[in-house]
Amino acid sequence: MKTKRDLVVPHSASLGTWYRAVRPKSFSATFAPIAVGLALALLDGRFELLWAVLTLVAALLLQAGANLTNDYFDHQNGVDSSASLSPSGVIQQGLLAPRTVLIGALACFALGAGLGILCALRGGPLIWGLGLLGLLIAFFYTAGPLPLAYVGLGELVVFVAMGPAMVLGAYAVQTQQFSWLALAAGVPVGLLVAAILHANNLRDIETDRAEGKRTLAARFGRAFARREFAALVIGAYLAVAALLVVDAPLALAGLALLPTLPQAGLLVREAFAAEEPARLNRVLRGTAVLHGRFGVLWAVGIMAVSGLQGL
After folding, report:
1. Distance of CA 85 to the CA centre of its chain
2. What are phi and psi of 88, to 5 degrees?
3. How confident is the model over 131-148, as pLDDT tens digits?
């Protein structure tokens, strides 16, 4: 039996509508860890452009699929409405029918998986495992009987999938080998991408509680959520400093991150001061920008160290 949510009729299915639906502004969450993994491969003297592009495109398709899946299931579960601050709003505004969004998500997953298989044929068993993990997390983040995002596991799975796992995956496609250093280098990136999600959950505490979405922020309250946000942001920089114990050249690459420190401090202060959702939405956007800059500068710093070692 069809519900009102199933009867939304799309006004348009233009490329512009799909562009909005897949939320390309969020793609820095994928680009940053891939860039770090590729920079680490370059540090080891291994880099092939074709495989770098295939890795990036495969990962972006999986993220696009995840974004569409999240919109579909959040709508079906009543979490997003026309009054909410939903990321794209294409369903709520009648731009795309829910079924169309789901089909688009499955198409992105299929294309991403196809390219992922090519990468796995080159990278070996490790890539098969990481690719399957990423696909499962992307789909079941908001799908299934116990969606990961609805039971307080969102930050954890996003940290793993878009931090250490994605950095290691990009590195392994280039080098065909495992690296503990790649995992370590992915930790700060993962902490910041988890901070993006947590900023979203901090903003949506009241609406998530009303809809039964038990994020960590909704479960433990605003004071806890603010401290967790600060811990994730500050922890990213501490994780880079901790690399001094493991690999001094990699920690040296972290000097490239110094220009982002003032922005990080401002975001933490704003998270503690803001109350209304619109103001917290600015914290969310600012955290996404910080993550993108952090990832790019982290990769640039690693490549700079690689260049110095080659002198």
Report:
1. 18
2. -110, -40
3. 999 889 988 888 878 788
Residue 220 sits in a domain whose CATH number is 1.10.600
The tokens of 195 are what? Answer: 């901070």
**pLDDT tens string 224-236:** 999 999 999 999 9
- Domain assignment present for residue 7? The answer is no
Give Rg (Cα) of the chain: 19
Q: Is 168 inside any structural domain?
A: yes
Whether the CB-CB separation of 191 and 290 falls below 8 Å is answered with no
Amino acid, res. 6: D
* Amino acid (one-letter) located at 119: C
CA gap 4, 225 in Å, rounded: 34
2 within a domain of the structure (yes/no): no
Instruction: Please spell the DSSP secondary structure of 62-106, one letter per residue.
Output: HHHHHHHHHHHHHHHTT---TTS--SS-TTTTTSS-HHHHHHHHH
Alpha-carbon span 301 to 244, nearest angstrom: 15
CB atoms within 10 A of CB 276: 8
Count the domains in the chain.
1
Widest CA span in the chain = 69
pTM for the full model? 0.88
Q: What is the DSSP letter of 156?
A: H
